[in-house]
Here is the input.
Amino acid sequence: NAGVTQTPKFQVLKTGQSMTLQCAQDMNHNSMYWYRQDPGMGLRLIYYSASEGTTDKGEVPNGYNVSRLNKREFSLRLESAAPSQTSVYFCASSELGGSLEQYFGPGTRLTVT
Amino acid sequence: EDQVTQSPEALRLQEGESSSLNCSYTVSGLRGLFWYRQDPGKGPEFLFTLYSAGEEKEKERLKATLTKKESFLHITAPKPEDSATYLCAVQANTGNQFYFGTGTSLTVIP
Here is the structure.
């Protein structure tokens, strides 16, 4: 039982490059989330998916897109990376409706130069 | 606007010196308040969920309490392995989003 897994763990991009961050969970959770964590800013929600087939914007969605591929997988795409997107990205999952606690992955540390 | 404020930003304790961390929140209607522990380079790890004022939960040296405006994480006789950043989050009953505070960085000195 791996919980929430994320790939890659580290990534360096040049400005304008694109990439997709992958997330998978094996807890049969319905809801999945993408956050970014920056020093002094705390965790900020980028996008979330309350259930398979739905996605919604969070607090900081600009510059990102998401895909809920199936119940297990939720990917985050940067179409044209910018230095402001340098951050640590966390994926999380929770039960339907998000009324219970979230479980987080180990994070992806992204640097955009 | 839903908001979470944690204090202090950083706390240094001697081993065995008990203290409390504070989480103040403003939310239209509280569905749940959550405490997490985060170690350097890792994802947050769930500790507690509190749902209503007056509720308390305990786990080893940690005890979380909740009022209508704030939550406290009490640490009794801390050990060096309790050193971490402690995060507080709230979820409103009007949606699925969680709002996080910026955390309290706790250092316990042997």
